[in-house]
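In the current project phase, the collection of sequences with tokenised folds has grown. A representative record is quoted in full directly below:
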Amino acid sequence: MEHKQLKALVTQIKSNHYIDQYIKKDMVNYGVSANEYMILELLFHRGKQPIQKIGEHVYLTSGTMTYIIDQLVKKGYVMRIRCEDDQRIRYVSLSQQGKELIEQSFPLHTQAIEVLFSPFSSDELDQWIYLQKKIGVFAQDLLDKRGENE
């Protein structure tokens, strides 16, 4: 009996590992960790964000978020801003130095990503994105159902 599902899972895990390693290696070229770069990139594209929202987007725990943001503040790449309406909420925003880092590095980072996905034709890439979303949404639904039953 063939176990295509197991083979699919092992292939996905291995691919994700190598993709993750490739991207992390590119991100450290800019003098920041991969997690730091992901936060800077998010702030660059979405503007200032509440700390909690950043963690949701980059899949980091609140403790990890606090540490990484502290590091980015020390490096001068971000600033913490108090919410005027609710003093409990803190926003994080790019500093001028952070904007300059992302503006200089993002085109190079984009090129590295283009190289990574260069084996795909445009149609294959569309199909890959579709299939990744499909399994991701299905897995999330399964997790949500398990959470309801526990």
Remarks:
- The two ends are 33 Å apart (CA to CA).
- The chain has a mean pLDDT of 91.
- The beta strands are 49-50, 78-82, 90-94.
